[in-house]
Specification:
This protein folds into two domains: 162 residues, Rossmann fold (3-Layer(aba) Sandwich), CATH 3.40.50; 92 residues, Orthogonal Bundle (ProC C-terminal domain-like fold), CATH 1.10.3730. It has twelve helices and eight strands. Strands 3-2-1-4-5-6-7-8 form an eight-stranded mixed β-sheet. Strand 2, helix 2 and strand 3 form a beta-alpha-beta unit. The chain is elongated, with a radius of gyration of 21 Å.
Length: 267
């Protein structure tokens, strides 16, 4: 049986995409094939979800049209060397941060279709942000197949590869920044006397509402939305003065620059 999608490496991100494909009705779990070093874990997924286990990585590639490569960055080249002979007419989609198309292309035959991607953890709740770029020669149908996979767990943009390190810094690592800011807001609320549970629920609800508001008005400048909340001489204006005096904007931009630089050195 030829499966449409196979996952070589079935970690957290691969699992999120796999489940997303099924939940969106695009590809049931029983039509997905998986391979991973942790065989016991895969056997559990096979029993619980009906996923198909490949005998090994080469078997997986022989049996599917699209291979989602979900191994960690240092393992990418070794995994591609292992499956090279089977990849001539397959689409390979890498999820690994920091591994360039050039690095992967040196291992694969010239005819292999190759896409580099970077989804983020929002994929686990169907709100992922994914960027991708393709090796020359990838046809529109293959690009559409990759886009369909990533749109099953959120949104997808095709970008130039030279922008990947910046995208990794902004969206790949981005959820951690928001979690950190939310945690600080919760702790600040508790310091002012709010119970922990209430402070957390207020912060999460406020974050969700703010994000949905910004998304629904994405043609509008974020500064305009901020000003809607900022009354002259009011509480918000007072808080923003403190943030600006402490250089919050500059700190965030410096952090992004550090993340982008680290992305270049991952492999």
């Amino acid at each position: 049986m030829l499966f449409k999608v196979g996952f070589l490496g079935y970690g957290r991100m691969a699992r999120a995409i796999s489940v997303g494909l099924a939940e969106k009705g695009r590809l049931p779990l029983s039509r997905q094939i998986i391979s991973d070093l942790d065989r016991d874990r895969l056997e559990q997924f096979a029993r619980d979800d009906g996923l198909i286990l490949a005998d090994d990585n080469q078997d997986l590639v022989r049996r599917c049209q699209v291979v989602v490569l979900g191994v960690k960055p240092p393992q990418v080249v070794k995994a591609l060397e292992e499956i090279r002979a089977e990849t001539t007419d397959r689409l390979i989609i890498s999820l690994a941060a920091g591994v360039t198309l050039e690095t992967m292309a040196r291992v694969l035959p010239p005819e292999a279709a190759l896409i580099r991607s970077m989804p983020n953890v929002g994929a686990s709740v169907g709100r992922g942000a994914t960027v991708m770029c393709a090796r020359p020669g990838v046809d529109p149908g293959q690009l559409a197949a990759a886009r369909e996979i990533f749109e099953s767990v959120g949104y997808c943009w095709e970008i130039e590869e030279k922008l990947f390190d910046a995208a990794v810094a902004v969206s790949g690592s981005g959820p951690a920044y928001f979690f950190t800011i939310m945690e600080s807001l919760v702790r600040g609320g508790v310091r002012l006397g709010l119970p922990w549970d209430l402070a957390k629920e207020l912060v999460l609800t406020t974050a969700l509402g703010s994000s949905e508001m910004a998304w629904s008005q994405k043609d509008r400048a974020l500064a305009d939305l901020r000003d809607m909340v900022t009354s002259p001489g009011g509480t918000t204006a007072e808080a923003l003065v403190v943030m600006e005096s402490k250089g919050l904007g500059g700190i965030i931009q410096q952090a992004l620059a550090a993340a982008a630089e680290k992305s270049k050195k991952l492999v």
